[in-house]
Fold:
Amino acid sequence: MGDSFYPLLGNSGYDVLHYDIDLDVEPSANTIDAVTTLTAVAAADLAAFNLDFHGLNVSRVAVNGTETGFSRDGQELTIELVEPISSGAQFTVAVSYSGTPQPIDDPGVPYKALGWHSDQGVIYTASEPSGSMTWYPSNNHPTDKANFTFRITVPDGVTAAATGLLTDEISANGRTTTTWQMNDPMATYLAAVYIGDFERHEQRLDNGLLIRDYVPRGSDASVLDSLAVAPEAIRFFEEILGPYPFDAYGTIVMPFPLGFALENQTLSIHGPDTVYPYVIAHEVIHQWMGDSVTVDDWSHIWLHEGFAHYLGLMFIADFTGQELEALMAGEHLELTAAETSPPGAIQAHELFDFNTVYRRGALTLHALHTLVGDDLFFSIVRTHYDQSAGGNTNTDLFLEIVDDLAGTGAVSLVESWLYDPEMPGIVSGPTL
Ligand code: ARG
Ligand code: ZN
Structure:
C-alpha cells in the first residue's frame, strides 16, 4: 500500500470485503487452532497475491475451496494460484493455522509489543498499528476496510468477547462458541478479541444504542460506575459529529493495569489505570475520529490523536465546568517547556508521542477554532467527519475543507501549527 512508515503493511491487487475469523482457543495453554477466511475482489489479474501474517504454523490454504500452494517470508504469506483470478472476480481464501501467537515489536510503539497477549489468565489483543497480523492473516493496512465475523470457541465458563455485535452462543462438548458481527467497515488494527473471567453488563441508551461493558468478575461497583461517563461522552460527541457510527459501544476493563487504552471498534480496552473520564472520553471520540474516519497513511496520525485529545478536553471542560480556553492555555504552557516536533511531519517512532501528536495536534485544532469561531469550526469538523465516514482521510483532505470553508488565512495558520519546527504562539480571540 506504500505506507510511508510501514512499507510492508498491506498488499495491492485485491480489496477485502469480509473476514471470517474462527478461533478455537485453549486459554490455559495460550494456543489457538484457527481458520480465517477472507472474501475479496481482485483489483487486477492475479497469478499470486500476498497476505500479512506473522508467526504461527500455517497448515493449509484454500482458494475458492481448493487447496493451493503458499510460501512465507517474514510477515508476507504468498498464495500461489493454480488458476489465475481475473480482475473484478470475487474469491475466497481460507488460511488454517495453529500455535501460540507471539506479539511483535513495532517502531511506532516502542514501549509495548503488539498483537495477541496472554497475561494473568486473560487473553487480549491490542494491535494498533501493525499487530493484528500476529493472530489473523489480512491485508493489514487501514485503507482496506472490511466487515468481520468472529467465531471464538473457549471452554464452558470462560468469557469471550470481540469487536461487534454478539449474535450467537452455542455450547457443545464442554466448549462454548460465540459469534460476533461487525457490520460496518473496520480497519484490521481495530479488530479485537478478549478472553477471561469477565462479567457482561448491558444497557440501552434512550436513542436505542446498545452499551455492553465487560469488567473482571467480582469487580467493585465503583469500576462499573466509572464507566457511566461513556454514554455521557457519546451524547456530547453526537451533538458535534452526528449519530454514533456503529451498532454498539462498550469498554472492557482488564484485571491489571495496561499503561494505555485503545479504541478497538465498538469495544475499547482499558486497564483499571485508565478508567477515568478523560481517557474514557478519548476512546469514545476515537470511534468517530480514527475508527470510522481513518487515516490513509500512518504518518497522518495527528488526525486521530489531535482530534481525540482536543474533543476529549472539550468534553472534560463541559463535564467539570472548566473553561476550554484555560485547559488549552495549560496545554500550550506544558509544550513550551518541552521538546516538540511538528505533528504534520513526524517520524515513525513519534507515532504516539503525547506532546508532538496529541498536544500539538490538539493545539492546531484549537488555533483554528479560536481564529474562526464556533460555527465555522464545528462545520469544518463535521464536514471532515461526514466526508470520510466509514472510509479514509489525510491531512490534505482536511486542509482542503479548511480552505473551502474558512479560506487561505486559516489554512496558513493550520499549516504553521502542523509543519513549523518552532511552535507558534497561542492564538487568542476570533479574528475572522
Ligand atoms: N490510540 C491509542 C490512544 O487512544 C494509543 C495506543 C498506543 N498503544 C498501542 N498499544 N497501540 O491514544
Ligand atoms: Zn488516542
